[in-house]
Structure prediction request, 291 residues.
Amino acid sequence: MTRATLDETTHNSAIEGFIERPLFRDTIMFLIVANALVLGVLTYSEELPEPLVTALIMFDTAVTWVFVTEIALKLFVYRLQFFKLGWNWFDFIVVGISLIPGGSAFTVLRALRVLRALRLLHVIPTMRRITEALLNALPGMGAILAILGLVFYVSTVMATYLFSGSENTDNFASLGASALTMFEVLTMEGWNEIMRELLDEYPFAWVFFIPFILFTVWAILNLFTAVIVDALQDSALETMREAEEKMEEKFEEKLEAEIGAQEAQEVIRHRELMKTLAELRAEIETLKAGR
Prediction:
């Protein structure tokens, strides 16, 4: 069999063409949504009629084997290339979890079947682009998390030393209790009540809490939004560039078909030259405006 490709736009065999057809992908997407709804309904199995529960379980089993067949076909077509994509690894693991046998020892793992709904994150192109943008933002988010963790730890230790002797509250009686309390403050959940419980004994407690909130909630946490927005902008620009490249390819193919390859190359070179000149003019105007 001719070597398959992962681009989902070309195919070298009937099976590859079948699994890359939009109808096949749309069917898998529909089954993912339907199966997620069924798994949600099955949480009420004790209150539902037994025939309905049996039918839903049969549907869940049938969908599981459809997904297994899908993965098997892709492994047959793409061979080891299948594992070059991270999303394929995700599908392989999630579908594999669905095959774990029932029983009390596997209850938690069986509950993970609902993870199959997350396959929508890459089945739907828009979701896929957003998810990949978020994944690309993880390194920047990791640095922010490290800063937040350091500030949080220092604040927790300080709070324990400052307020562990309070007689009005046990929120800071130990390092663990202080960490839980400071996390509540970080989420802005009842932080004013936590602070007011200390004001009678520690009138200047607000000097500790207000800077903590300003620095962590309003400064550090907002950096997450900035990093994510930047990653989404990069993803949007990349999508635009890909669309432009596809349009250029179609234009060149159509041009060659109409006027011939040699004349088409001359037109393309002329267009590229005009584009370069336009970019140079824009840079010159920018430099003039900056003076």
In short: The first helix runs from residue 14 to 19.
